[in-house]
Structure formats: structure tokens, C-alpha cells
Design brief:
Layout: H1 2-12, H2 52-60, E1 76-81, E2 86-90, E3 96-108, E4 126-134, H3 136-139, E5 145-152, H4 154-158, E6 161-163, E7 168-175, E8 185-194, E9 199-201, E10 205-208, H5 212-221, E11 226-227, E12 230-231
Antiparallel strand pairs: 1-3, 2-3, 3-7, 4-5, 4-8, 6-7, 8-9, 8-10, 11-12
């Protein structure tokens, strides 16, 4: 168990440079099991038993596609993140609102010379892995801490495909089981493992967390209204507080296990 965690943490350093291509193995680095090799179930693995190799591949950026994409193949994964924590019903908790993040993922095809219709979002078909790191530890001089990890299998991911003005893509609500209001900045990275074997990763992005929905819910629960940000006297009758927004679906993300702290790069906070 200890060696597994150390290997994960050490290989997480490969994300520090922000690269999105597979590099040649460095003999000085610890070896990691192949993404195709079977792995024993690990009780505190953030992913369900049997998926440990995929977790290793995600952290170490193993198995990413390096050959140029052909027409119709996935060439680039782009993620648009919302830094505001929102609340949506969770069917696994009796429909109670839970905090989470919204994301929109696009899988783009290659840009073909002389073809203005190329380089647009494709109809994605694959599984998704999303990781979130707390950068609070980094500010304290420690490596960023892996806080949450979501795995969305291919069949489930299909349910989240939605068209918009850009084209087809995934619209995700990621329930954040480890969320708390003291968080300031986090890093998020997504990976797409296509059904055709093409594997892509999004550029890491740093989010400055907006807790306004959480604070508003707390104020409503206490019967305290806010006007221009200033607390007001409690009302005689308080309204039942509910979710600020409610995306229609739940991704079924898995909470992370303890002791796994890979390092990811930090883009400028937005």
C-alpha cells in the first residue's frame, strides 16, 4: 500500500510541467504498473476496485495519444469550468442538495488544411476521469493535495452528452464530497479515454472558488437575509432554503482515499 501511494505521488510530479504528451520513461523514477496490467483491489483507492491502473495512468499521464489524429478522430480535449459551487439534488442521498462543480467538455477533431469545416467538436464516445487538487497545501510549502477524483464510465458519460452553440460535448455536474467553505484555490484536470483508443487530457486549470451559494444557503438557514452583502435582522418567517441551481443529472463521482497527493501544475488563478 505504502509503495503504491509513493509511486502515485512521485509520478504526479510529471504534471508539474503541464505537458500533455507521453514522455520516455526516466530510469530514476519509480516504475508504475502498465495501464493494461491487472491490479489488486485497493480499499482506499479513489476509483472502484479493478480500476487502479486507470488511476495510475491518469496521474502519470500514461497512454496518451501521441500520433496525429486522422479526420473524424479525437485530437484535443478542452474543458470549460465554472468556479462557483452550486447545489443540485443527489439521488444517492434521497434527493438532498449537494455541493458540486459544473463543467463542459469538448472533444475536437483535427484541423485539416483547406477544410474550414474541420477542427470542430466531435460526438464524444468514451469514459472520463476528472481530478481536483487543493492548492492550499502548496501555499503552505507542501505539494498540492489530491482532494477529489471522479470516474464516469462510457455508458454513463453518454447520458451527459449535450449540444450547444459550439457543438456536441459533455455537460457535467461533479458532486464534491470533500468540499468545505475554507477552500480558496484548486486545480482541475480531465481525461478522455475514447472508445476508439484515442486518449486525451485537458490543460490543467486553476479555479478560485466562489462560495457565494454556500454562504447564501447558510444565511437563509439562519433566517438572516443579505442586502448588498450586509447581514440584516432575522425575518419572523424564514423561507425553506433550496438549491441555487439544479443540473438535471449526477455523475456518480467517487471520493478519494487518504494519503494520495500527486503534484499538478498551477495556471494563473482566474
Amino acid at each position: 500500500m505504502a509503495s503504491h501511494r509513493l509511486s502515485i505521488a512521485a509520478l504526479g510530479a510529471t504534471l508539474l510541467a503541464g505537458c500533455v504528451t507521453t514522455t520516455k520513461p526516466d530510469p530514476a523514477r519509480p516504475k508504475v504498473a502498465s495501464t493494461e496490467a491487472p491490479a489488486a483491489a485497493i480499499p482506499d483507492d479513489p476509483l472502484p476496485p479493478g480500476l487502479s491502473p486507470k488511476f495510475v495512468a491518469f496521474v502519470a499521464q500514461q497512454g496518451l495519444s501521441t500520433t496525429p489524429a486522422k479526420p473524424g478522430q479525437a485530437a484535443r480535449l478542452t474543458a470549460a469550468w465554472n468556479n462557483k459551487v452550486i447545489y443540485a439534488p443527489d439521488p444517492t442521498h434521497g434527493g438532498d442538495p449537494v455541493p458540486g462543480l459544473l463543467a463542459r467538455l469538448y472533444v475536437f477533431g483535427p484541423i485539416e488544411e483547406g477544410n474550414p469545416a474541420s477542427g470542430v467538436p466531435l460526438e464524444p464516445d468514451g469514459e472520463l476521469i476528472v481530478g481536483l487538487w487543493d492548492l492550499g497545501a502548496k501555499e503552505a510549502g507542501k505539494p498540492p493535495e489530491l482532494m477529489e477524483l471522479w470516474h464516469i464510465d462510457r455508458d454513463t458519460a453518454r447520458k451527459f452528452r449535450r449540444p450547444d452553440f459550439m457543438g456536441s460535448g459533455y455537460t457535467l455536474f461533479l458532486p464534491w464530497s470533500k468540499y468545505h467553505v475554507d477552500l480558496k484555490r484548486v486545480n482541475v484536470v480531465a481525461r478522455y479515454n475514447g472508445a476508439d483508443g484515442r486518449c486525451l487530457v485537458s490543460s490543467p486549470e486553476t479555479l478560485t472558488i466562489d462560495h457565494s451559494a454556500t454562504l447564501q444557503r447558510a444565511a437563509e438557514k439562519l433566517g438572516v437575509a443579505k442586502v448588498d452583502g450586509a447581514p440584516q435582522p432575522p425575518k419572523v418567517e424564514t423561507l425553506p432554503f433550496g438549491p441555487q441551481s439544479a443540473p438535471p443529472e449526477h455523475t456518480g463521482g467517487q471520493p478519494p482515499g487518504p494519503g494520495q497527493q500527486p503534484v499538478v501544475p498551477g495556471d494563473p488563478a482566474r
